[in-house]
Amino acid sequence: MIEPLVASQLPLRLVRRGKVRDVYEAGAGTLLLVASDRVSAFDVVMREPVPHKGAVLTQLSAFWFRELAHVMPSHFLTADAGLITARIPGLVEHRDLLAGRAMLVRRTTPVPFECVVRGYLTGSAWAEYRQSGTLAGEPLPQGLVESARLDPPIFSPATKAETGHDQNVTFSHLAGALGPRLAGRLRQASLALYEAGRAYAGPRGIIIADTKFEFGTGPDDELLVIDEILTPDSSRFWPADRYEPGKSQPSFDKQPLRDYLAGLRKQGGWDGNAPPPPLPPEVVRATSERYLEAYRLMTGRALEMA
Question: CB-based burial of residue 140 (10 Å sphere; 0-12 exposed, 13-18 middle, 19+ buried)?
Answer without folding.
Answer: middle
